[in-house]
Specification:
It is an enzyme of class 2 (transferase). By secondary structure, the chain is α/β, with parallel strands linked by helices. The protein is built from nine helices and ten strands. The strands form two sheets. It has an eight-stranded parallel β-sheet with strand order 8-7-6-5-4-3-10-9. The protein has a two-stranded antiparallel ribbon with strand order 1-2. The chain binds [7,8-dihydro-pterin-6-yl methanyl]-phosphonophosphate and 4-aminobenzoic acid.
């Protein structure tokens, strides 16, 4: 299996860099020289993809910014790192205009946390520029509170229908269960996220690469009592090992070196599963 030309015979790391000062983990926010240095370092440490976010999508933060500002941040960042790294760059956005300008600036992949459901133009941009897309599970109104992984699967089915109807090919799609994004009143989101990671294997029904974003998220904070995202690395690595054991193909993470070691060990052990 491949995604954006990258072999997924072993699980890979997608290194996260944000150019959005409002992002929930301040250690992920880079600018200027530091942005380029971080991208180069992540690739040296083994990142197979770099994901650039120009607007936070944290559901519990005030994150609204004008679209012009998101475009400005995204284009500047992608232009800065494009020639410094030789791995595919994804643009983390829910806005079709941002995606289009980012692709023109050199982005190779669109990463849409609304799974093509937020901006109706998004699927058209993905099709027109013929770029791979990360489709996240997204649901305005959660219907099945007791069975998170099946709600995630149903949400992904809707997004995949949008993709296939518009001529996006299977080879160009990775799916993502959107850890931290579902915020039902019950069960609490950290139980939701834990149930999804525990049952991630069920997402294999789609036969598509599975990408998971766990890094330093609030469910790790809720479980460990670590309120500061800067203290959530160890908890993130524990959940990463479980996600890999359960079939994750790409781990989106802020800490490339540590995450890649965990992936290697978890995947090595996974291969001996009876
Ligand atoms: N496909 C995918 N994309 C994502 C995911 C995720 O789980 N999957 N999580 C994010 C949260 O991390 P980030 O550090 O970008 O936080 P921010 O939204 O506050 O910038 C942002 N983007
Ligand atoms: N964009 C996101 C950022 C952070 C979280 C989380 O901390 O759970 C979820 C989504």
């Amino acid at each position: 299996m491949k995604f954006a030309g990258v072999s997924l015979d072993t699980p890979k790391v997608m290194g996260v860099i944000n150019v959005s000062p409002e992002s929930f983990f301040k250690g992920s926010v880079k600018r200027g020289e530091e942005l380029i240095e971080t991208a180069v370092r992540m690739v040296e440490e083994g990142a197979a993809f770099i994901d650039i976010g120009a607007k936070s999508t944290a559901p519990y933060l005030e994150t609204e910014i004008p679209v012009e500002e998101e475009i400005r941040r995204a284009v500047e960042a992608i232009r800065a790192i494009r020639d410094a790294v030789d791995v595919p760059i994804s643009i983390d956005t829910t806005n079709a205009k941002v995606a289009e300008e980012a692709i023109k600036a050199g982005a190779d992949i669109v990463n849409d946390v609304t799974g093509l459901k937020g901006d109706p133009e998004m699927v058209k941009v993905v099709k027109e520029y013929d770029v791979p897309v990360v489709i996240c599970a997204h649901q305005e109104n959660v219907r099945n509170f007791s069975d998170p992984v099946h709600e995630v699967i149903d949400s992904l089915k809707e997004s995949l229908q949008i993709a296939y109807k518009n001529g996006i090919e299977k080879e160009n799609i990775a799916i993502d269960p959107a850890i931290g994004f579902f915020r039902p009143e019950y069960p609490p989101w950290y139980v939701w996220d834990s149930k999804v990671i525990a049952n991630l294997k069920l997402l294999k029904v789609f036969g598509l690469p599975i990408l998971v974003g766990i890094s330093r998220k609030s469910f790790i904070g809720a479980i460990t009592g670590r309120e500061d995202p800067s203290e959530r690395l160890e908890g993130s690595l524990a959940a990463t090992a479980i996600a890999v054991l359960n079939g994750a193909n790409i781990i989106r993470a802020h800490d490339v070196k540590e995450t890649l070691d965990v992936i290697k060990v978890a995947d090595f052990i996974r291969r001996f599963t009876l």
